[in-house]
């Protein structure tokens, strides 16, 4: 047996080979999320210059050739020769793993980088890259291709012969970048590595806006030449302004936001919070300007301080009776908007994984707990009106939690969620029990539900017809939701529970697919279901289970041939073809007009259907949109409609 395993099987990957061999280890995935991470790594290097006080302007530019360039007016990467290596420091930074100024050598005190792999990883996963450095009255360039191989060593930039890359033309506009120092990094992602090389600029519009809030006084710019858009962001109010921006479409309870900024044990803790009259929570956490989507020790410290301080204040002010229970952490989350940002020595920074989704420094918990607790005590004493409004909100949440628990116990415990009940009568279940293979279609309308039941794959596809518009859960507490007939059936069918009872192990279907008509009413119904999932079963979205079916709008037939057309653009393009000119075009007014075969062929067959997977890349932006479109405040919704009216597809038939 051992003779099959010899020294010949041992491989040594040198240079940047490990990155190309296992890109997921460095950027998380080779999908669009990983693709976006490339830009984030380079932008974060510029952000480190900004936090160190050297950069005031950061620009991200998407070029027509599919490449992206990141500019900053910082100090510029050093390009002198590193004697012990015999090559320039610039080349080391962009071609060697674990090379950079973030290991305690005096380059950066506070930075986002830990391992010195960001720039070189981007180079490794690019078809080509170029770096332009402006420093010490000199402008130099270095170029790389095929995963980080040096094509052009460091040399003065001559715009008359600006590139030695075979695949890349020169397309950077340096005339408009007039700074005396800085770094420009341009790269083209390698299409042999990534599943897609199409950037979603909306992601970076949100990211740069967020960075602008986190680094007050720094200008951020985004230019997208393909879509002809240009954004500039500059804020002086920091996270306090960010907090007020998130809550601008809501009715706030404490008009004066809580805010603190203080250094504790060499850690700068900055926190802001404000309550609103909604039932949802928005809490954003950052460490050295990086968003920690999974929270970490700073979030733990914040929650601990908030729970203890609010309870102490409520008892002292006699806002909670002696016999009443303490407010729980869950009670304090209802209507809470908070931002916690910490900055600490990058040499001590600990994240879980290269993508830095969760902060791990244990000393940060104590720092945040202490700073927030002491400042919040003062805030509540000095602002008794705001303090009372917060506690009243929390007490209502406590009462609603007790009511919701009672409602869940009576509604759900007798069902299949606890193993002893029956599934909803309207549910046509599937025979397969492995949730990795099963799908639940939430179908609007009895007619469409009937066609779906006839046309489905009975082994793997379950159908739950729900007729009519459902409760708007943006403005409803959990006790009302679980008592609603439609949501009761849906919760029972999904099987994983809701709220505190949610258990992913009990989930009965791997895909939950909302299937509604492709008209205004259908879109409204779909939005109501998405609001429910986003507000009350967010784990389903976070884990990638929620999808939206995309039915066709038209069917073209000519002779014995047919073609389904999913939108007006496809219809227009089809009508230009030889077949389209002789075809009869039928407009589907709803799913109920399709027979079982058509519904299967166009919307349910995994081999031919179109599905949109629902995800939330920017929770704050999604929260804002849901609040604006589904909340009680009319003015923000009216402004949104007026602003976007020209972009709407209006069907008058």
TrEMBL record:
Catalytic reaction list: ATP-dependent breakage, passage and rejoining of double-stranded DNA
GO biological process, one term: DNA topological change
Coiled coil: none
Keyword Lipoprotein applies: no
Top-level taxonomic group: Bacteria
InterPro entries named among the record's database cross-references: DNA_gyrase_B_C, HATPase_C_sf, HATPase_dom, Ribosomal_Su5_D2-typ_SF, Ribsml_uS5_D2-typ_fold_subgr, Topo_IIA, Topo_IIA-like_dom_sf, Topo_IIA_B
Molecular function in Gene Ontology: ATP binding; DNA binding; DNA topoisomerase type II (double strand cut, ATP-hydrolyzing) activity; metal ion binding
Family: Belongs to the type II topoisomerase GyrB family.
Protein's recorded name: DNA topoisomerase (ATP-hydrolyzing)
């Amino acid at each position: 047996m051992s003779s099959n395993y010899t020294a010949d099987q041992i491989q040594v990957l040198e240079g940047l080979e490990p990155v190309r061999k296992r890109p997921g280890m460095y950027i998380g995935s080779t999908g669009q999320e990983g693709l976006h991470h490339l830009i984030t790594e380079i932008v974060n290097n510029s952000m480190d210059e900004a936090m160190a006080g050297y950069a005031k302007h950061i620009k991200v530019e998407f070029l027509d050739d599919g490449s992206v360039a990141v500019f900053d007016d910082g100090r510029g990467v050093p390009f002198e020769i590193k004697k012990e290596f015999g090559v320039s420091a610039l080349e080391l930074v962009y071609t060697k793993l674990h090379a950079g100024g973030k290991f305690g050598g005096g380059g950066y005190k506070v930075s986002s980088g830990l391992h010195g792999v960001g720039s070189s990883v981007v180079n490794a996963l690019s078809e080509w890259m170029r770096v332009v450095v402006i420093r010490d009255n000199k402008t130099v360039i270095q170029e790389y291709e095929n995963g980080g191989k040096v094509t052009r060593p460091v040399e003065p930039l001559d715009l008359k012969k600006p590139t030695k890359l075979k695949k890349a033309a020169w397309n950077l506009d340096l005339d408009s970048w007039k700074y005396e120092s800085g770094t420009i990094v341009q790269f083209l992602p390698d299409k042999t590595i990534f599943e897609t090389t199409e950037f979603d600029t909306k992601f970076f519009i949100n990211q740069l806006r967020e960075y602008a809030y986190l680094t007050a006084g720094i200008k951020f710019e985004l230019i997208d030449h393909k879509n002809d858009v240009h954004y500039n962001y500059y804020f002086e109010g920091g996270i306090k302004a960010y907090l007020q921006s998130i809550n601008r479409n809501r009715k706030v309870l404490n008009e004066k936001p809580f805010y603190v900024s203080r250094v504790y044990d060499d850690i700068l803790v900055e926190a802001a919070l404000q309550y609103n009259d909604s039932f949802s929570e928005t809490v954003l956490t950052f460490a050295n300007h990086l968003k920690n989507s999974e929270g970490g020790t700073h979030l733990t410290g914040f929650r601990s301080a908030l729970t203890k301080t609010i309870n102490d204040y409520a008892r002292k002010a006699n806002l909670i009776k002696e016999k009443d229970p303490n407010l729980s952490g869950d009670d304090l989350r209802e209507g809470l908007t908070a931002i916690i940002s910490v900055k600490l020595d990058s040499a001590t920074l600990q994240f879980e994984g290269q993508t830095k989704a969760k902060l791990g420094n244990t000393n940060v918990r104590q720092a945040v707990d202490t700073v927030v607790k002491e400042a919040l005590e003062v805030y509540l004493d000095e602002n008794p009106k705001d303090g009372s409004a917060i506690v009243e909100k929390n007490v209502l949440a406590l009462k609603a939690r007790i009511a919701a628990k009672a409602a869940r116990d009576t509604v759900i415990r007798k069902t299949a969620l606890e193993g002893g009940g029956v599934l909803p009568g309207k549910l046509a279940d599937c025979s397969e029990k492995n949730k990795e293979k099963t799908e639940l279609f939430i179908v609007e309308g009895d007619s469409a539900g009937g066609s779906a039941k006839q046309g489905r794959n009975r082994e793997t596809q379950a159908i739950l017809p729900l007729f009519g518009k459902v409760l708007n859960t943006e403005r409803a507490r959990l006790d009302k939701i679980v008592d609603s007939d439609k949501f009761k059936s849906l919760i029972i069918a999904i099987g994983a529970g809701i709220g505190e009872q949610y258990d992913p192990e009990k989930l009965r279907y791997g895909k939950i697919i909302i299937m509604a008509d492709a008209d205004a009413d259908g879109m409204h119904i779909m939005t109501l279901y998405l609001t429910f999932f986003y507000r009350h079963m967010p784990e389903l979205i976070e884990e990638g289970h929620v999808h939206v079916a995309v039915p066709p709008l038209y069917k073209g037939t000519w002779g014995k041939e047919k073609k389904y057309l999913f939108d007006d653009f496809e219809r227009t393009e089809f009508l230009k073809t030889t077949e389209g000119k002789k075809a009869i075009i039928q407009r589907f007014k709803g799913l109920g007009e399709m027979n079982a075969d058509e519904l299967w062929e166009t919307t349910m067959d995994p081999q031919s259907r179109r599905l949109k997977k629902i995800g939330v890349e920017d929770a704050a932006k999604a929260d804002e949109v849901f609040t604006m479109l589904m909340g009680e405040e009319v003015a923000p919704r009216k402004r949104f409609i007026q602003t976007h009216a020209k972009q709407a597809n209006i069907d008058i038939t």
